[in-house]
Amino acid sequence: MCGIVGIVGKREVAPLLVDALKRLEYRGYDSAGVATIHEGHLDRRRAEGKLVNLDQKLGQYPLAGRIGIGHTRWATHGAPTENNAHPHFCSGIAVVHNGIIENFAPLRAELIADGAEFHSQTDTEVVAQLLAAYRKQGLAPRDAMQKALSRLEGAYALAVLFEDQPDMIIGARSGPPLAVGHGSGEMFLGSDAIALAPFTDEITYLNDGDWVVITCDRLEIYDQAGQPVERPSQISRGAAYVVDKGNHRHFMEKEIYEQPEVVAHTLSHYIDFAEGRVRLDTGRIDFANLDRLAMSACGTAYYAGLIGKYWFERFARLPVEIDVASEFRYREMPLPGKMAALFISQSGETADTLASLRYCKDNALTIGAVVNVQESTIARESDVVFPTLAGPEIGVASTKAFTCQLSVLAALAMIAGRARGTLSIEDETRMVQALVEAPRLFNEVLNAIQPQVETLSRELSRFKDVLYLGRGTSFPLALEGALKLKEISYIHAEGYAAGELKHGPIALIDENMPVIVIAPHDRHFEKTVSNMQEVAARGGQIILITDEKGAAATTLETMATIVLPQVDDIVAPILYALPVQLIAYHTAVFMGTDVDQPRNLAKSVTVE
Ligand code: M6R
Fold first, then answer.
1. What CATH number does residue 579 fall under?
2. Does pLDDT of 331 surpass 90?
3. What is the per-residue pLDDT across 62-114, written as a single tens digit (0 to 9) for each?
4. Ligand 1 mean position, distance from CA 416 (Å)
C-alpha cells in the first residue's frame, strides 16, 4: 500500500524523503514522488516504477527545500503513471494520500461544476482541489483542512503542504496509520515507525479521526471535532531493526531462514520450558466459559486461523466460526454473549480485519489479536494482544509471520484445552515438548531440502498451473501453498481439500497439472494416498511432501518426494510450511519475478 513521509526541519529534505520512502518499499508500490517548498515555491518530482527512477530524476533535476512530503503509490484509482503519482498539486497545495476516498466521484463532480479542472484520474486529487477551493473562499489552512476532512468518506492518511506556509505540514488519519516522529529541531510524519527510524525513535501515533499540524519544533493534534487533544509519545522498536537482506538475495529468503530463530523466540514467550507447559495469560478471554470463538483475518493470516480452528476444536472442543475478514465484516453474523473474537494480522493494519474487529467490539465481544506489529491499530484496539515475535517482515509474501502465528495459535489452543478440561496434562506436555524441539528441526530441514527444492522448482517453473492438496491441518496449508506460489511466481495455483478432488478439480488432472500433496503420516494419510492414486491414474504428476513413515508407505511414482522428519500433529503444519514456502520462493526466482515486491501486491492492505 501507499507510503507517506513528511519532514519539516533544518536539512535539505529531498534525499531524506527518498531514504525514508526506501524503508517503505516493502509495502508495495508502483510510482513515487516528492514535493518541497523552497524560497516560497512549491515544486515536485514524480516517477513511474521503482524509487530508483525517482532518485535518477532528482539527480537530474534536484529539488531544494527544508520542508517536504514524499509518497510511494500503490495504484487504486488510475493507472500507475507519472501523472497519477503523488504529490497532487492544486493552487499552491500539495497532497499525498494513502487509502481510498470513497465519495471522490460526487466531490469531483461538485468541484468540476464549480469550475475546477482535474489533471489526474486519482481519488486523491479531490482532496487538493477541495482544500484549494476552501482556501479561495478565504479559509486559513487549518480551517480549510478541517472542513475538507469533514467532507471525506473512506479511509485515508494524508500529508499536506501549503506553499504560503513554508514551515508547516498538516497530516490526518482516518483508517490507515500515520505516525509523528519527534526530532531535535525537526519533525517527521510517516506511515510507520520503520520509515522514521533513521531520524528518530520517539513516535506519537495519531488516533483514528485525528489530524495534526507539525512545525520544526512542535506538534498540535486535533480530534475529528477540531478539539486539541494530547496523544502520548513512545519509544518505537522500529529503530532497533536493521532492514537489510544480510547475505540473502531477497528479504523473503532471509525471512524463511529466520524462522527457526523467530519461532523459538515466539514460543519462548508462551511456553514455560522448565515446567514443560504453556504459560499464557489470556486476560479477559475466559476460554473456560466460551460457547464459541469467532476468528477472522485475510490472506496468509486467514490460513493460519483456519489451522487454529482445527486445533481449538480438537484440543479445546471449542467451536470456531472463521471467515475471511472481507466477508466477516458484512455477513452480519449473530454474536451471542458467550463468544469472544480473535483476529490475526502481521501488519495489524489490514482494513478488513480492523473493520471486523470493530464490528465485534460494537457487539460487546472481548477482542483478542495475534499481531506482529505491536504499535499497530489492531493491537491498540484489542483487549488482549498475543504478540508474534517475528520482527519486521519486509517481503510481501508472508512467511515467518505465518509460522509465528501458528506457534501462538497452538499455544492458545492448548491453554483453551487446559481451561476447558479437554486436554490432559500428558497431552499438553507431549505437545509442548514437540514444539520446543521444532526450531532445531526447522534448521535441519531448511538445510536438508534446499537443493532438492531448487531442482524441483526449476521443473515447476515450466508449468502454467499447479494444484495443492491436503487433509486436516494440511488443507489450509495447501491453500497457503497455492497462494504463495501464485503471488510471487504468477503461476496459477489452487489449493483443495484432498477429499474434494473428485467433486470437480479432478477434471483438470493431466500431465500438465502437477499436484503437490501435503501428507504427513497422520490419521488422514491413508485417505490422502487414495486421492493420490486418483491423480496418478489420470496421468497427473505428484509431488509428495511427507515424512519418513509416509515415504515408506507409498509406492506411487512421484515427480519428487520431499521427506521431512516425523513430528507431532501440532508441529506438522508449522514444519510443512517450510517446503511450501521454499517451493514458491525458488520457482519465483527461476521465473525471474520481483520476489519481494510482486506485481500489483502490497504488504499492508489498508483499503477494502
Ligand atoms: O498484515 P496481515 O497479516 O493482516 O495481511 C494479510 C494479508 O494481506 C497477507 O497475509 C497477504 O495475503 C500476503 N501477501 C500473503 O503472503
1. 3.40.50.10490
2. no
3. 999 999 999 999 888 888 899 999 999 999 999 999 988 889 999 999 999 99
4. 26
- The protein residue whose alpha carbon is closest to atom 16 in ligand 1 is 397
Q: Is the CB of 325 under 6 A from ligand 1?
A: no
Which of 74, 347, 357, 585, when mutated, tests ligand 1's pocket best, judged by the most ligand atoms within 8 Å of its CB?
Answer: 347
**pLDDT tens per residue, range 239-261:** 555 567 877 899 999 999 999 98
141 near 169, Cβ under 8 Å? no
- Residue 599, pLDDT > 70, answer yes
Q: What is 244-283 written as a DSSP string?
A: S-TTSSSHHHHHHHTHHHHHHHHHHHHEETTTTEE----T
> What are the CA-CA distances from residue 289 to residues 278, 344, 421 (Å)?
19, 22, 11
Beta-sheet pairing, 202-205 with 179-182: antiparallel
298 is catalytic: no
Cβ of 346 less than 6 Å from ligand 1: yes
- Whether residue 573 contacts residue 477, with contact meaning beta carbons closer than 8 Å, is answered with yes
Substitution candidate for ligand 1 out of 350, 354, 607 with most atoms within 8 A of CB: 350
Domain residues for 474?
Answer: 447-592
Please tell me whether residues 30 and 173 are part of one structural domain.
yes
Ligand 1 near 376 CB (within 6 A): no
CA gap 85, 185 in Å, rounded: 30
Residues 18 and 107 in one domain: yes
Same domain as 452, residue 370: no
CA nearest to 313, candidates 413, 411, 407, 428: 413
Cell numbers that stand for 226 in this block? 477540531
Q: Which atom of ligand 1 is nearest to the CA of 353?
A: 4
Is 216 an active-site residue?
A: no
Render pLDDT for 200-244 as a digit per residue (tens, 0 to 9).
989 999 988 999 999 999 999 999 999 999 999 988 765 555 567
Q: Mean per-residue pLDDT for 323-338?
A: 88
User: How high does pLDDT run on average in the chain?
Assistant: 93
